[in-house]
Amino acid sequence: MNDILTEKQYQAELLGILRDQNGYTIRKATDFDRRFAIDREMLFGFLNDTQPETMEKLRKIHKDRLEDTIVSFINAECTKKRGSLLEVLRHGVELSGHKLELMFTKPATTFNKDLMRKYEMNRFTVMEEVWANDKERIDVVIFLNGFAIISMELKCNYAGQSTDDAIYQYRMERDPKSRLFLFKAGTLVNFAMDLHEVYMTTKLDGEKTFFLPFNQGNGEGVNAGAGNAPCEDDYPVHYMWDDILTKDTILDLISKFIFIQTSEKENEKTGKVEVKESIIFPRYHQLDAVRKLLADVEENRTSLNYLIQHSAGSGKTNTIAWLAYRLATLHDADNKIIFDNVIIMTDRVVVDRQLQKAIMGMEHKSGLIRVMDEKCNSADLAIALNGNTKIIATTIQKFPYIVDSVQGLKNKRFAVIIDEAHSSTAGKDMAAVTQSLGMGDELYQDMEDEIAAELARNGKQQNVSMFAFTATPKPTTLQLFGTINPNGQREAFHVYSMKQAIEEGFILDVLQNYTTYKTFYQINKEIEEDPKMQTASAKRQIARFVELHETNIAQRIEVIVEHFRTTVMQELGGQAKAMVITASRQAAVKYCQAFEDYCSKKGYKGIRALVAFSGKVKLPDDTEYTEPGINGIPEDQLTKEFDKDDYQVLLVANKYQTGFDQPKLCAMYIMKKLKGVNAVQTLSRLNRICPPFEKKTFILDFVNSYEDIVGAFAPYYTTTLLSNSVTPTAIYDLEAQIDAYAIIDPDDVDKVNEMLYKEKVQSADKKKINFCLDKSQKLIEHYSIEKQREIVVDLRHFVRFYEFMIQVSSFEDTELHKKYNYIILLLSHINIKHPGPGFNLDGKIRATQFVQKKQDEHTKSEIVAKPVVKLPSAETFGLTPAKEERLSEIIAAINARTGKSYDSDVAVKAMLQIRDILMKSDKLKASAKNNTVKDFEFSYFDDIDDALIEGLEQNQDFFSLLLNDEEIKREVLGIFTEEIYTSLKQAAEE
């Protein structure tokens, strides 16, 4: 027998807290007018107390019928087609020429004492055991000024019941047509709550009623997940009465968060546009993020930047809309507006219209928001920034064009919200943003002052705060926008993790049904001669030859089509769709052709494909293809057409791998190497849920290992932490490396910068600049082609790292900035010629014996969070070491040639182990001291077998291959010859 807590006791406890702690009045259920879902006494008490003069005027007009007239009129406003209780509460009603306010929100400032007094006169009441109709009794109903706004079904876990039982009651035992629950006219939100968890819905719709979790999350950081954390002194759902059901929060929700979303969709059968309305109530993490950001900004004004790490499925568009709307009217403690403008930036070329609809749903105010769409140019954006529009939505690509055109913005304060803060925020686009919004049109004494000011514009501007949203923060993003935690690591200001989103059912775990395939084949020469060629170039040509080989594509298409037909097609009531990720535009065209050929040959109906790629593609037969030409539909109509039942498969090449939201996608077939953030974003196209269906996902991967994909997801599964920071030392090391090439004359750097910073660059100046750059070009051309490429890589490396460093630190060095300006011009000036025609393998090799062999099937996700990431040093910034890359390519070729599957990372480590063994050889040291590198090779390869035998125990299979195959051994280990020779020769001479 339960003697701890009953449902009735829990209910009584809640009402007591609302009365004693939150200032509610407890009313009897008999005071409820079920016909209009109101408490008449509370409504008219509020109206008479707050607006006595208006009520007196209306009483003269309507006399004894006044109360019935007001109630009927408000009810008509709530229940009409475009009406709602939300609109009535927010904007009041106008009756007989007189305005009645039905609630008073908290004023933005404390200046208006009368508004503050009326705000405090709002009436909050609660009833228990409320009869919605003759058959249905609701546990708890909350009222604002007499209007029923919240219903709650409570369950007690000690009595053997939970939120599942409450949800069942709402779905199966509550009439959506009763006035209390009537959509838009009745309660704004309905909570199912037990002692541990809370769920919510804004629309009762019988069995189709969709409930969302409304929980804080269990744990923090890497331990964060679904649910609520245990609480020693209270129930885990205590935040409901401590926060959500307080008077201030409820008024805040009604006036500034809840909105009615309208979406339009064309009915495929009738062709008519159907309008669907939804009441949007913030999920807990959305409310929490916005309120914490506002509180911090209120205190720190424009002095900080913020990173918000919210997973896919977090409702990011609405969170951004709420944040933008609130920042636009935010005042500080001195009642002063904090931001003059709020700018929403996205990486997408076409700004999301959904954002505009969401903000307009919160406030129907003309001129509040302007979307700079594809028809607007940078001049339009400059005008908007100088104007009075409070919220401007645009693309980051427009900013570089207005750096010089926007004047006088230094006295304005900006909040910049970045949607998907990725790599574009770490380079010149981001620098352009801070330049545009930062310091204005100062007059400079000389070039040195102007460069110093330019450096200052690049860093954090005192008049600009940035709010960066991403699910997958890179180290550079964490450095730019992250907050330093007590351990000295940079982290997001607010986190809603992938793990929590999966556990709460907002997104799916796409790694649950993951199958890998391996392609085996034999490469043969078709010519007699045996030409020497660059290994890396040859490997790339062979890989591309195999990738586009018709037999390979035909076999893979067979696997794809049959898997889709037998396993995927019946999902989502027969509406399931799939995406094929190809490695190139040519591959996309050839896979599309093979898809059509196979389905036609088999006589399959009901499986049709669309292809997506940019520009024009020419195949070896000289036929040219475009996406619209193949599909027979305009490019901008593709997503709309793919949503229809006519098409099931989308074959893509570098399109729709990010930002594409299609809930019907159930399967993905991968023919492309995916790494890091790109892997996470691509596979996440599958993770959208598709109510009311229980969606399953399937991935067949022909290229990547499951372990590599799991590794790509690990840093973003919970929270992401940056453990190191950027320092100037590395950039100076890079500068020294470039100086050592002796390709840049310091005098030329000064001359070019003098001309660059003139008020107007004359034609003669341009010729002088060109002369200086030509000198550097000729000095570069004195080196071998390989060395020239290395120099260009170092120059690009310098530019990228320098741009990033001045973004994230207060680093200033005028001389270094002048060199940066010069290198930028030099990189656009130089053009490294290819050393002759090279060796073309077309028609000279033949691939046979293709086999697509299934490797591993993973039916359970194995993600373990690995939250710590590191910022690359200047030496490795964004680059893979050439030797390691070459080794990986050679090992991949060995695998294809031998039918083996040596792990590239393991093999590379093994090679480095052999290198270390060889470095300790006294025999080789003596040889290096006394021989040229060419003669050294003989003793080097003699000693390799001893090193292989020494390491044989740990890497038996791979080392045995090298011992038994002289050609492969020389190919693999020849990479280290020069490195070992140089090191040993230096050591011998010291």
Overview of the molecule:
- The chain is α/β, with parallel strands linked by helices.
- The chain folds into 5 domains: 7-151 and 173-191 and 231-256, no CATH class; 282-496, P-loop containing nucleotide triphosphate hydrolases (Rossmann fold, 3-Layer(aba) Sandwich); 542-718, P-loop containing nucleotide triphosphate hydrolases (Rossmann fold, 3-Layer(aba) Sandwich); 728-829, no CATH class; 880-989, no CATH class.
- 43% of the residues lie in helices and 16% in strands.
- It has 37 helices and 31 strands.
- A 7-stranded mixed beta sheet has the order 1-4-5-6-7-8-9, with helices on both faces.
- A hairpin with a 4-residue loop joins strand 7 (189-193) and strand 8.
- Helix 27 (746-756) packs across helix 30 and helix 29 (785-808) crosses helix 30 (814-829).
- The longest helix is centred in the C-terminal third of the chain and has 24 residues, at 785-808.
- The chain is globular and about 115 Å long.
- Residues 403-407, 441-448, 525-534, 834-841 and 874-881 have low confidence and may be disordered.
